[in-house]
Design goal:
The complex is a heterodimer. By secondary structure, chain A is mainly α. Chain A has helices at residues 2-49, 52-55, 71-102, 107-121, 124-141, 151-175, 179-187, 192-221, 224-229, 247-254, 260-291; strands spanning 59-60, 67-68. Chain A has eleven helices and two strands, in the order H-H-E-E-H-H-H-H-H-H-H-H-H. In chain A, helix 3 (71-102) packs parallel to helix 6, helix 4 (107-121) packs across helix 6 (151-175) and helix 7 runs antiparallel to helix 8.
Chain lengths: 292, 352
């Protein structure tokens, strides 16, 4: 009897191992397949434009004078995402402290925490609509830009969208700071602010940094809400209140009716976006390792 | 418990029976499939449903864009494709077999704007091109005032709004601007997406219309099928004969009252007809000239062509005007019917 159970355990272990192995291989294959098809699809554009694709901001699909460059979209993507992160960090940081440290365990913290998590579940079209009908007219009314659409408006919406990503991981790491350490600091007469500054933050900083990188990654790829708000002008934005376009948004806009070289150029932008998010993630991992 | 199981079983059997009857009914009738342009889709949807009841066939249409429709026809996975732009000679040569164009209705591009208190403005081709190329930047410009006597334009920057996605509407509009303005033709040209010198891009007709509605001082172009349904204030555009014409079903249909080539591959833009709205064009169905491909039966070919033939009839054209498209002028419908009758199935005529 015991031998039978023993055998079963061995078998179930084997089965589990195989299942785990198979599913991770499938993930690898999907990722690899995507990369291969992106590279294959962008070959015509790569061989036509080479490195110039990265430094040219001309996007002219007119037959006869076709010429494509991704610089305007790369700049637009980085501008909106980084600006969104700059706006989101203070919001997310203080919210995290509120939920996970200052009002930890209270009802109000639970309510705020749930609401912030809820923000992550709102479809991006809703954000887009809200930005289109509420935020754009507000930006016009404040005299920030004559038409309301542009990098700034998109960044504002993006900032709200990425706050839950920036807070969720921060909350966990801040809450995980050992109580003994905090109590020790309090016993030495430290105020709450001093405890946060000297105990909580140094212990939680790698997790907090990681959550901001995660949030940046989300901002880089966000498409729908940005498309509705950025103005879709295929130029390098002249200021943060100017119009522009992002990599994800130009693909979503133009792939439907694109063919030939234009389609290939769009796929190359997809490849670049893939590379950009990989680089951002790598930098994030490096930062976490360095300060963690 | 037992009773419940019996009830569930009975219900399941009834459901199964229903499914089988529906499936077998569908298997008996023919299915015709097409794909392509989104611009005429509301017309096609309405017409295909009506025809389905008339002829007891099922017609499915995928609005996947003109480019997608051409690709599907190239791959021979549909009975017909649909496109807002006719195939160029180069594209015709790239198709695996000869293709014919059958116009089904006309559409137009309407110039919409947002100036509080101003319901209607007049635009000449020169001024229109100058606005969309960023040369005229303010509503209070002398060029605009000259052709709009009596209208007090505000001292406000013009915000140009164009399509951000590839579109037959953009193709029609930029083709028109290229025809009437040499500088536009040389610098920007025409296509489903172009390199806009100024302005904001918005996705789809609803996106452009929404952005115009939202932005005081804006001007943009919207497909007529959408603009007519929304009753948006629009600009009168001066046509080739010098008349300022409001876009309407009648003035768009009138654009086809000029010389049409035998294969109907023509943009109606800048029509010489007296009452024509100048920014208008056909939308086409694309069919292989030899219908014997991809193991299609003669009956399938016949059903497809009968459908297309009916689309050119009065009944179908009436549906077109009901859903805000301009019906084909009689001379064009006759031409299209003649083209349909050149289609063969391995050398045999399909329609009498």
């Amino acid at each position: 009897m015991s031998a039978y159970i023993y055998n079963m355990q061995i078998n179930s272990d084997k089965v589990l191992k195989r299942v785990l192995f198979a599913s991770s291989i499938v993930i690898l294959l999907i990722g690899g397949g995507m990369l291969v098809s992106l590279i294959k699809g962008s070959m015509p554009s790569i061989s036509e434009f080479g490195w110039k694709f990265l430094v040219s901001s001309k996007w002219d699909p007119t037959q006869g004078s076709e010429s494509y460059g991704a610089l305007a979209f790369i700049v637009g993507t980085l501008m909106t995402s980084v600006l969104a992160l700059i706006i989101a960090i203070p919001l997310a940081f203080f919210t995290s402290l509120f939920i996970a440290e200052y009002f930890k365990g209270t009802k109000i913290a639970a309510v705020v925490g749930t609401l912030v998590d809820l923000l992550a579940g709102i479809p991006s079209i809703i954000y887009g609509l809200w930005g289109f009908y509420i935020l754009c007219p507000l930006v016009v009314k404040l005299g920030l830009s004559p038409q309301g659409f542009g990098v700034f408006t998109s960044s504002l919406i993006l900032a709200i969208m990425i706050v839950p990503y920036a807070t969720s991981l921060s909350n966990t790491t801040i809450a995980m700071v050992p109580n003994e350490l905090k109590e020790a600091a309090y016993s030495l007469g430290a105020t709450r602010l001093e405890v946060i500054k000297t105990v909580v933050l140094p212990n939680a900083r790698s997790g907090i940094a990681a959550s901001y990188v995660l949030a940046l990654g989300r901002a880089l790829g966000e498409t729908l809400a940005v498309t509705m708000l950025i103005g879709n002008a295929n130029i390098i934005p002249t200021s943060i209140f100017g119009t522009g376009n992002t990599m994800a948004s130009v693909i979503a806009n133009q792939f439907g009716e694109a063919s030939g070289l234009q389609l290939s150029a769009l796929i190359e932008i997809g490849l670049l976006l893939f590379a950009l998010t990989t680089i951002v993630n790598a930098i994030g991992k490096y930062i976490i390792k360095k300060i963690g | 418990m037992k009773k419940r199981i019996i009830l569930v079983a009975v219900l399941a059997i009834i459901a199964l029976g229903l499914v089988i009857t529906i499936l077998s009914k569908n298997a008996g009738s023919k299915t015709i499939s097409g794909a392509g342009a989104t611009f005429p889709q509301p017309f096609y949807n309405a017409a295909f449903i009506t025809y389905g009841h008339l002829a007891h066939v099922k017609v499915t249409y995928g609005g996947i864009g003109s480019g997608g429709g051409i690709r599907s026809l190239k791959d021979k996975v549909v009975d017909f494709g649909a496109s807002d732009a006719f195939l160029s000679d180069k594209e015709m040569n790239e198709m695996p077999a000869p293709v014919v164009h059958i116009p089904t209705c006309c559409g137009a591009v309407v110039i919409a704007f947002n100036l509080p208190g101003i319901k209607q403005i007049k635009l000449t081709p020169d001024v229109l091109a100058a606005i969309f190329s960023g040369k005229i930047k303010n509503w209070n410009s002398t060029e605009l005032k000259k052709i709009n006597s009596g209208i007090h334009f505000p001292n406000k920057a013009i915000v140009v709004i164009h399509r951000s996605d590839g579109s037959g509407t953009t193709n029609m509009f930029t083709d028109y601007l290229s025809k009437v303005d040499a500088a536009w033709r040389a610098k920007i040209g025409s296509g489903k997406t172009v390199n806009w010198p100024v302005g904001i891009g918005a996705k789809g007709n609803p996106g452009v219309a929404g952005a115009i509605h939202q932005t005081v001082g804006s001007i943009g172009y919207v497909g007529s099928e959408y603009a007519f349904a929304q009753h948006q204030p629009s600009a009168l555009v001066q046509n080739k004969s010098g008349n300022f014409i409001e876009a309407s079903v009648a003035s768009v249909s009138a654009a086809a009252q000029c010389a049409i080539p035998a294969d109907t591959r023509v943009m109606l833009n800048n029509s010489s007809a007296k009452d024509a709205y100048p920014i208008a064009g056909f939308t086409w169905l694309l069919l292989y000239k030899n219908q014997a491909y991809n193991n299609r039966s003669f009956a399938q070919a016949q059903a497809t062509l009968k459908l297309v033939d009916w689309m050119l009839d009065h009944d179908a054209q009436k549906i077109a005007s009901k859903v805000n498209y301009a019906p084909l002028a009689p001379n064009v419908a006759a031409k299209a019917k003649a083209i349909l009758r050149t289609i063969t199935y391995n050398g045999k005529r399909v329609l009498k």
